[in-house]
Structures are given as C-alpha cells and as structure tokens.
Design goal:
The chain is of the alpha+beta class and 221 residues long. Helices cover 47% and strands 13% of the residues. Among the domains are: 30-104, Double Stranded RNA Binding Domain (2-Layer Sandwich), CATH 3.30.160; 165-209, 2-Layer Sandwich (Double Stranded RNA Binding Domain). The chain is built from 9 helices and 14 strands.
C-alpha cells in the first residue's frame, strides 16, 4: 500500500513536470507559466488593465492584438466562418458556434421574470438587461451607453461616417430627410400611391417597382 502511494506521488510529480516543461516564463503575480516571453508580456496586460491595441476606425481598445484583428472584421464586413446547415456567414468563430445552437429545437434557459425561453445562456443574459435596464456597453468616444453590443457597434457609425441623425432603432443617417423617410417604416405610414390602382407604399422605390407590373399587364393584352 505504501509503495502504491509513493508511485502515485511520483506519477503526479512527473505529470506536473511535463505540463510545465518548456514554460520557463512565469508571471510573478499569478504564477501562470508561458513558453514564450512575448506571451508573458501580453498576459501582464490583464493585471495592469492596459489595452494598447487601438482600432484606427472607432478608437476602441483591446488588450490583445488577436482581439483587434477579429474586431476589424466588423468594419470590413468579412465573414469567413460559414454555417454548414444554412450557409449563414459569421465574422467570428464563437458567433458561428452560438448560431449552431439555433438549429436545435431545445430552449433550456428560462427567464425567471417573464418565462421566455432561450437556446443559449448568452441570449438569456442579454434578454435580462431588458428587465434590469442595465447598459454595460459604453461608447469610447461620447460615453453613450447601450444594453447590447450590436447597438453600440451601429452607434459607432455616427462618429466614423459623419452620420449624425439617429433613429430609435439605432440606425443612423447623414441627412434628417433620410431619417424622416426611414421613420415611416416604424409608423406604418404609406404616403406613395399608385395613380393606376391606388395601391399605397411606404417607399418611393417600391412604388416605382410596382409600376412595372402595370407595364407588364399592358404588354400581355
């Protein structure tokens, strides 16, 4: 029995030695080990709360260069990760992983306040903000706060594109007239009327497209 205990202790010590071998760079604050000095230097930023990597487009800051690289995909519109089931594309692998849950019919996460159910804990957490009124996402430029990161991302367009007219749905426009036209969608107003059949539309472009149906009818007779 004593021999077995000695052997077990030796095995654990050997396993620990294997795990730490090659990791000679040690953080003196939390004793975490790294194989490369550059990784240790990047790790120290967590303790110092520094974010030296700055996005040139929106001034958002990041601790890690890899996080900044992923963030740039939001500005460029690149979406290299594709769902194999529906073909939807994502800029981040983690977003694709969360999306894959939507193809499952199970919703195991329940809101205790309104009994609404969700497929992922992340969506439940975002939903709870509607009840609590918390707005944890802050604009680095004007300090305006948002309950969702997606709304904050849309808001940044105000600072980067010169679009200063913002709708309640967070969509932004360069001109006030464009905002007013957009607001008609929310109000359900249809100001554009077809002079042939009196059908109404909320957009002038939709009215113009509709006119082609009358032209096609004329050609068929």
């Amino acid at each position: 029995m004593m021999l077995k205990m000695v052997n077990d202790s030796a095995d654990k010590q050997k396993q620990k030695s294997v795990q730490t071998s090659g990791k000679s760079n040690v953080c003196d604050l939390c004793l975490k080990r790294f194989t490369r000095r550059s990784n240790l230097a990047e790790h120290y930023l967590i303790h110092k709360d520094e974010k030296p990597n700055v996005c040139e487009l929106c001034n958002r800051t990041f601790r890690h260069k890899s996080s900044l690289t992923k963030h740039y995909l939001y500005h460029t519109g690149e979406k290299p990760f594709v769902c194999e089931k529906c073909g939807r594309r994502f800029s981040d692998l983690s977003n694709l992983s969360r999306h894959n849950v939507t193809h499952s019919s199970e919703k195991p996460f329940d809101c205790e306040m309104c009994e609404k159910t969700f497929r992922s804990k992340r969506n439940l957490t975002k939903h709870i903000l509607c009840h609590t009124g918390e707005k944890p996402h802050v604009c680095a430029v004007c300090k305006k706060r948002f309950s969702r990161r997606s709304n904050l991302s849309r808001h940044y367009a105000v600072h980067t594109t010169g679009k200063s007219y913002v709708c309640d749905c967070s969509k932004v426009f360069r001109e006030k007239s464009a905002l007013l036209r957009h607001s008609l969608l929310h109000k359900g107003l249809k100001l554009y009327t077809c002079h042939v059949c009196n059908k109404t539309f909320n957009r002038k472009s939709n009215l113009f497209q509709h006119y082609f149906t009358h032209n096609d009818e004329g050609k068929s007779h």
